[in-house]
Amino acid sequence: MSKEVIVLSGSGAIGIAIVRRIAVGKVLLLADLKFENAEKQAQELRNAGFNVHTIACDVSNRESVNKLVETATGLGKIMGLVNTAGVSPSQASAQRIFEVDLYGNALLFDAFSRVMAKGSSALVIGSQSSHRLDSLTLEQTKALALTPTEELLHLPFIKEVNDSLKAYQLAKRGNALRVQAEAVNWGRRGARINCISAGIIHTPLANEELNGDRKDFYRKMLKELPVGRGGSPDEIANLAELIMSEKGAYITGSDMLIDGGATAKFWWDLTN
Ligand SMILES: NC(=O)c1ccc[n+]([C@@H]2O[C@H](COP(=O)([O-])OP(=O)(O)OC[C@H]3O[C@@H](n4cnc5c(N)ncnc54)[C@H](O)[C@@H]3O)[C@@H](O)[C@H]2O)c1
Which residues form a coiled coil (predicted)? Predict the structure, then answer.
């Protein structure tokens, strides 16, 4: 019988917390732009009894993503895909954020949509930041949801953005919209696809934001969160585990916000 495979793209803090929940007893393929990240995580997981393979992959490169799909399908039937490969506003330019977080995610979903097994599930980690964006026009909304992957980076309202935070917000909004649009096709294969929009989760990526150019903005947000603290990768994994499991079988095309109330505070704190 073919083995069940879980693929993690971006072997960082949130992704690893998720696969620890969903890859027990399965074959786990860890991918990362920095192969050493994947290898380091693999060592720890192997010590914990996981069956782990590693591969270098740049999600913003079609050839690299095709190689990931080929490697994954060679290991067995794909039951889970988790995309946590991302760069944040303090880590990269607007262009690089669009390449990795917007185009890369669309590329990955395209490539895997053809090989996901019946009953499988995919997930991308979006961001609460996308919920702070003003409303997009209907055309922009449709464009993010439906534009063929290779044309995404050429959309005029994407090309004109130079600010890395705006790029991050648009890219993550794109993730949530893409998931909604893709859910229809994926349903025809008996597969599900969802997005989690995470708030401030204590990871190396969030720490760069909390100490980067916009540190005052992020520290204020953290201090004022309705739940009174930042989140942990395990708290994202709690929700991801539900979505990816049989218990989440009715969830598809969804964008779930888990942000300690950051979005509620941003839009509806009338005391400000
Ligand atoms: N930590 C937070 O507060 C937070 C909040 C909202 C959303 N997110 C999102 O969650 C995801 C995971 O973030 P994290 O906090 O676990 O960060 P992390 O830095 O621990 O993990 C991200 C991983 O992605 C890898 N990566 C970067 N570019 C890549 C590429 N082109 N191809 C393949 N891999 C690549 C990095 O090497 C890193 O290992 C990101 O998409 C991030 O935007 C994080």
Answer: none
